[in-house]
Amino acid sequence: MTAIELPYDRSVAEATDPIFERVAHVIPRVEWPLHAPYVAAINRLKRERNAVILAHNYQVPEIFFTVADIVGDSLALAMQAAKTDAAVIVLCGVHFMAETAKLVNPEKTVLVPDLQAGCSLADSITAADVRLLRQRYPGVPVVTYVNTSAEVKAESDVCVTSGNAVHIVEALGVPKVIFLPDEYLAKYVASKTSVEIVAWKGHCEVHERFSGADMRHFRAGDPNLVILAHPECPPDVLAEADFVGSTQGMSEYVGTLAEPHRHARVLLMTECSMADNVAGAYPSVEFVRPCNLCPHMKRNTLPKVLHALQAMEFEVTIDPAVADRARAAVTRMLEFGRQPRD
């Protein structure tokens, strides 16, 4: 798909200037004429198509702040996808997230702006791998991170996100679980519960590149630096962090540092756009940014989002035989999320 350059004229400026005022601290004014025509066209087409755009926290600011209707981590997107009344869902994230949206909205049209927006974790394990693990550990529940394909979810008992993994593992009330596919998230969960964890050696290509040495280097330059890390990071990173949590958890924690008259410098050990988007919500917080880019998340662009709505492609479909079983695992996760917590 070749992007068509759209003109920035007076009508576009009038339609998008109020939006720019909300993002002026994260998108330079000089860049706005490049984004604004797409922002105007996308927001118009959303109304015409009865469409909603879901954007993960790792999306670029021009998507996250200007055209997205629902933003958040994978759990928040899954929950909101299940509630939307829109006929069309455009998922700005990676393919497994779009599959999850389709699982909880089987009658709706789910589109992705780029079919190549994949995930190293999702690619690290197959449904056949899960079946072999079940043979090796008969009767042990399979707890699967949402960063997986629908085929893998279909072989699982329940799905989890980084934000609810510990809660769900403990709520199962069993002595041992198979936890797939992120090895580092599995180790983090194991450190928070007495449940025995059987792990897989899948890794996120973004988070696995961070190291504890990186964090010590930055903290040496600023002892008051507040470091937040995603549990997909290696254990030596988590050991150095002041806070460990999901992208939503990190965003909420930064909010506690954004109190009036309080100066805070924050380092987020996660994907680059996360810092941009959290900075947009909390402009009083200063961010140190030694982040790593996710090449898959960055495949989503405003021209591709516009094309998705214009051409109604690329549609996500799932084999019904797979979808029914995968939906059960996702639904069970959402049901755990609705249970009261201690």
CATH topology of the largest domain: Rossmann fold
Profile the largest sheet.
4 strands, parallel
CATH superfamily of the largest domain: NadA-like
Q: Whole-Å distance between the termini? A: 50 Å
Care to count the β-strands? 12
Verbal overview:
The protein is 45% helix and 14% strand. By secondary structure, it is α/β, with parallel strands linked by helices. It has three domains: 10-119 and 297-311, Rossmann fold, CATH 3.40.50.10800; 121-202 and 318-337, NadA-like (Rossmann fold, 3-Layer(aba) Sandwich); 207-288, NadA-like (Rossmann fold, 3-Layer(aba) Sandwich), CATH 3.40.50.10800. The strands form three sheets. A four-stranded parallel β-sheet has the order 2-1-3-4, sandwiched between helices. Strands 6-5-7-8 form a four-stranded parallel β-sheet, with helices on both faces. The chain has a four-stranded parallel β-sheet with strand order 10-9-11-12. The model has no long low-confidence stretch (mean pLDDT 91).
